[in-house]
């Protein structure tokens, strides 16, 4: 199965003392009601692997890609579970509130997030689980390709054909932004991303955008995976950029308003009230200085997990773990479940959290 097929299917399912340790090792403490404490030295590149039942650092065969002897891995600021694109296991994870964890209120049969491809558009929408409707957050997404910059804003996921609502007919707007100012906005009313999903195979094309040429291309996943002619591709609710895991190109993207996501998830009603007109000013406000700022975290698509964009405190410098979240993690065996809390970083740099202090408690 291709990366596109995996990603599409995934999106449719809807304080104690410790001894000194060396690189790649861990220090443990006695189990408590709050779990067993473990400290892990995290490399800036490569992975350090954990088995959570003990918990302990392990060294699986090879690079761990074919092993189920680990449950969680750290690599720089990426946290991976043994699932999906990260490993062959049946793992996954789910963020839960620290308040619920401390009260002992854990979800009984939760929907767990497997590791999959993601990037600038991973959290472009908010989901209403009661009505099974997704709403654009109207974030402005920055796209960079070989020194050229564009801004792009999703308006809606829903279109209409002969009076009937249709999913994955996107409405969006984008514009190239030059040092002297933005170019004219391009408005697209019905970008066809209806292909894909459980009931279709990978041979049907869906829409991709060549931003430099102001044109739409209809490409199958196989064609998109081999082409550098596009910058952004759409397939159902999956949006990918042509770089790293996303494709063979050099396109990079970033969500310029990602810091707002956590609050939006707590205030869905506010997101639901946003419209193309109400959010036009947000789109218009993004200029060249913003897009060309070295602080913008541009990159291609990469492995996204339940931890991505959620486990770090927004705006912290040096980076620090988020204070209000804990993690329900399913082991590689698909049966064991654990709760993990990240207590702190020691020696964090731009490329690694350094020594990460965690607490792990098995709950199943």
Automatic annotation (TrEMBL):
Under InterPro entries, the record lists: HmuY
Q: Which PROSITE patterns match?
A: PROKAR_LIPOPROTEIN (PS51257)
The protein's superkingdom reads Bacteria
Would you tell me the protein name for this molecule?
Uncharacterized protein
